[in-house]
Amino acid sequence: MSKKLTGASGTPIADNQNSRSAGPRGPVLIDDFHLIEKLAHFNRENIPERRVHAKGAGAHGTFTVTKDISKYTSAKLFDTIGKKTPILSRFSTVGGERGSADTARDPRGFSLKFYTEEGNWDIVGNNTPVFFIRDAIKFPDFIHTQKRVPQTNLKDPNMMWDFFSLSPEALHQVTILFSDRGIPDGFRFMHGYGSHTYSLINKDGVRTWVKWHFRTQQGIKNLDPKKAAELDGSNPDYATEDLFNAIEKGDYPKWGVYIQIMTEEQAKNHKDNPFDVTKVWSQREFPLHEVGFFELNRNPENYFAEIEQAAFAPSNVIPGTGLSPDKMLQGRVFAYADAQRYRIGTNYQQLPINAPKCPYANYQRDGAMRFDSNGGSSLNYEPNSDPNAPKQTNDPNPLFPADLSGAAGIYDNRTDGDYYSYPAALFKLMNADQKELLINNIAESLQSVKKETVERVLAHFVKIDPEYGNGIAKKLNITLK
């Protein structure tokens, strides 16, 4: 027996095929509440798309602990080898709109939500270990260069290269972006990174700085630019389709979970700022330590409810985990949660996909789309004298005390002028074919860029490595002085 069709309020709908009208030829009457409800809801079905990472795919899975890291963290999800924790993943391109192609040359977002017994813990990273900028105050400027020109509403490489040429801290990420890794072959065949420096805190209150690495067990695969351009037109949802179909047929993708570890003392004496997200930590000096693995084994039943409404934010930390002084991370701690409040609503954390799996209680009340009991008759302030009301735990705070020094002020992040050694080391690691592909990709992107901008950019690439800069110049028929 089929279900009875009703409106959103539960009212039975007698006719879902015809509008109520004055006679068979109309006009339609405004008191047709079912028509009005359907049209009004349809008009509002699109929530604002993410300003960045708008196009993406995701799936459910499990994280499994394989190594004991209790000496570094008191977080309960790591407390037993073999322990499993449900997770949600989302992969995305960064600059494109929701209808853009999965095969664009772009970093890939790599976000994980762990539904732990102590609350939700999010790592919101990318498929690259570094980023274009060091300070979140430059994030809106950078993203504007990846979007559309205000006058023409067209994308223009002049904006991007003008910004890069005047922001040399971006060169490390630029070199990765225009390498073979700039267009992964779907989402299953790429590594992921927390990118920022995070922290772990053990039961004795000792903090350790860490970098999170998620290494694909499917192997690395990247797309040739010509193949990517072909897919752009023939199947713009290539990566989304690949992930869904693999999980649907039981070919569950897996990633190994690892951390790099740096003590507070090592951080103080490190030759570079260990919280600078434009640089990496040497794996020779700070090797990878295995933590576990995660497997994606369940597709969403409804994309909108489980992926589009999924809200990731690095402010979601749990006891035993924490943040760092990384200026980009500090900005994201505010910006991501704030973006979700705008995009989905002030009560976005109540949505089933975002709600913790563990018990939770707070004094938040009211706001649009509050769809639980809104606290019922309980008190909405604290401290209070009700013995049954939520009280603070006095457990160690995830916002671990930080040693602050120096006068409050605005400090130039470019006093560290080492823009070239890290991309130079990366360039030297490439074989001849990888170097040729990198040089071709950059030269092609620079074809329509203004001459003065090209000259500024080439001056940077030559400083990274003469072979690098001169190779690009040769492709552009430019003779460098």
TrEMBL record:
Transmembrane segments: none annotated. Residues 1-26, 372-399 are annotated as: Disordered. GO terms for molecular function: catalase activity; heme binding; metal ion binding. One of its GO terms (biological process) is response to hydrogen peroxide. It catalyses: 2 H2O2 = O2 + 2 H2O. The keyword Heme applies. Residues 6-390 form the Catalase core domain. GO terms for cellular component: cytoplasm. InterPro entries: Catalase, Catalase_3, Catalase_AS, Catalase_clade1/3, Catalase_core, Catalase_haem_BS, Catalase_immune_responsive, Catalase_sf. Heme binds at residue 336. Residues 374-396 have a biased composition (Polar residues). Keywords: Heme, Hydrogen peroxide, Iron, Metal-binding, Oxidoreductase, Peroxidase. PROSITE patterns: CATALASE_1, CATALASE_2, CATALASE_3. It comes from the Bacteria. Its cofactor is heme. Its EC number is 1.11.1.6. The active site is at 53, 126. The keyword Transcription regulation does not apply. Decomposes hydrogen peroxide into water and oxygen; serves to protect cells from the toxic effects of hydrogen peroxide. Belongs to the catalase family. This is Catalase.
